[in-house]
From TrEMBL:
<keyword id="KW-0547">Nucleotide-binding</keyword>
<feature type="domain" description="SRP54-type proteins GTP-binding">
    <location>
        <begin position="101"/>
        <end position="297"/>
    </location>
</feature>
<protein>
    <recommendedName>
        <fullName>Signal recognition particle protein</fullName>
        <ecNumber>3.6.5.4</ecNumber>
    </recommendedName>
</protein>
<feature type="binding site">
    <location>
        <begin position="191"/>
        <end position="195"/>
    </location>
    <ligand>
        <name>GTP</name>
    </ligand>
</feature>
<keyword id="KW-0694">RNA-binding</keyword>
<keyword id="KW-0687">Ribonucleoprotein</keyword>
<keyword id="KW-0342">GTP-binding</keyword>
<feature type="domain" description="AAA+ ATPase">
    <location>
        <begin position="100"/>
        <end position="278"/>
    </location>
</feature>
<comment type="subunit">
    <text>Part of the signal recognition particle protein translocation system, which is composed of SRP and FtsY.</text>
</comment>
<keyword id="KW-0378">Hydrolase</keyword>
<comment type="function">
    <text>Involved in targeting and insertion of nascent membrane proteins into the cytoplasmic membrane. Binds to the hydrophobic signal sequence of the ribosome-nascent chain (RNC) as it emerges from the ribosomes. The SRP-RNC complex is then targeted to the cytoplasmic membrane where it interacts with the SRP receptor FtsY.</text>
</comment>
<keyword id="KW-0733">Signal recognition particle</keyword>
<feature type="binding site">
    <location>
        <begin position="249"/>
        <end position="252"/>
    </location>
    <ligand>
        <name>GTP</name>
    </ligand>
</feature>
<keyword id="KW-0963">Cytoplasm</keyword>
<feature type="binding site">
    <location>
        <begin position="108"/>
        <end position="115"/>
    </location>
    <ligand>
        <name>GTP</name>
    </ligand>
</feature>
<feature type="domain" description="Signal recognition particle SRP54 helical bundle">
    <location>
        <begin position="2"/>
        <end position="87"/>
    </location>
</feature>
<comment type="similarity">
    <text>Belongs to the GTP-binding SRP family. SRP54 subfamily.</text>
</comment>
Length: 297
């Protein structure tokens, strides 16, 4: 289960304070030490952990929490609020273009869940807004990638624009956008190629697609199971493409929590959606406060 270890350790750290009418500075220091270790063990970025712990400690010291009523409960509340803040505070919705189509470019490493998420998002837009999205198959390096997108699209009854694997992806996107204009599609979702690691050639190609398509939204898909690597990936893509949002996938797995808690703080970019399963309906809007509650258990 996601966050299992982290939840247990955080609860354990704070349980020790329960029932105490007054908390000494030494108690607080010990609790903060345990929280810090719990976060580091969950693979949360070191700087994020440092800032988080300082923030919680300062608030606990500052607001007479230690002397007040129910200090343990107040500290739980502060931890909850600071976790929420670290993950961005508010849900951030999809960027929309004032005139159709809204163009969404999906980017991410191979296996992160890009193609699956493109389908999930198309279905969400169809279901919630009665939208008529068009998907563009821009991954020409793996023939299986196009087949996969076509299969996903058939399952949710959304059209795919594709020109096979022999045409340059920038040209595919150009022609796909022309088709979307002709058909008055209100959304275009561009699936792009992924690699096992960030490489310059791929980044240049993605930049070219970005320059041509002027996407309203560049959604980076990252695998929550990969912890700090997910954060490094996010930084790499963001440096080159200035992404507008992140989709964190595989939160139904036993991720430790590092990616969820670090990405916003490290990149400054909001997590907009979370993937919670392999089915097309398993995509949810990311709510930092709900995620904080889930982490605290
Ligand atoms: P891409 O290479 O980035 O396009 O990745 P895919 O979309 O092909 O996804 C790779 C694998 O991850 C597939 O088996 C997907 O079914 C799976 N996957 C994607 N998102 C999720 C998710 O949120 N939860 C789970 N459990 N599996 C996912």
């Amino acid at each position: 289960m996601a966050f299992e270890g982290l939840t247990e350790r955080l609860q354990g750290a704070m349980r020790k304070l329960r029932g105490k009418g007054k908390i000494s500075e030494k108690d607080l220091r010990e609790t903060m030490r345990e929280i810090r270790l719990a976060l580091l063990e969950a693979d949360v970025n070191f700087t994020v952990v440092k800032d988080f712990v300082k923030q919680v400690r300062d608030r606990a010291m500052g607001a007479d929490v230690l002397e007040g009523l129910n200090p343990a409960q107040q500290i739980v509340k502060i931890v909850d609020e600071e976790l929420t803040k670290t993950m961005g505070d508010e849900a951030v919705s999809l960027n929309k273009s004032p005139k159709i189509p809204t163009i969404i470019m999906m980017v991410g490493l191979q296996g992160a869940g890009k193609t699956t998420t493109a389908g999930k998002l198309a279905l969400k837009l169809k279901d919630e807004e009665n939208a008529r999205p068009l998907m563009i198959a821009g991954d020409v390096y793996r023939p299986a990638a196009i087949d996969q997108l076509v299969q996903v699209a058939e399952g949710i009854d959304v059209p795919v624009f594709q020109l096979g694997t022999d045409v340059n992806p920038v040209e595919i996107v150009r022609q796909g956008l022309a088709q979307a204009a002709e058909n008055h599609n209100d959304y275009v979702i561009i699936d792009t190629a992924g690699r096992l690691q960030i490489d310059e050639q791929l980044m240049n190609e993605l930049s070219e697609i970005k320059d041509l398509a002027h996407p309203d939204e560049i959604l980076l898909t990252v695998d929550a199971m990969t912890g700090q690597n997910a954060v490094a990936t996010a930084e790499g893509f963001n440096d080159k493409l200035d992404v507008t949002g992140v989709v964190l996938t595989k939160l139904d797995g036993d991720t430790r929590g590092g990616a969820a808690l670090s990405i916003r703080a490290v990149t400054g970019k909001p997590i907009k959606f979370i993937g919670q399963g392999e089915k097309m309906t398993d995509l949810d809007v990311f709510h930092p406060d709900r995620m904080a509650s889930r982490i605290l258990g």
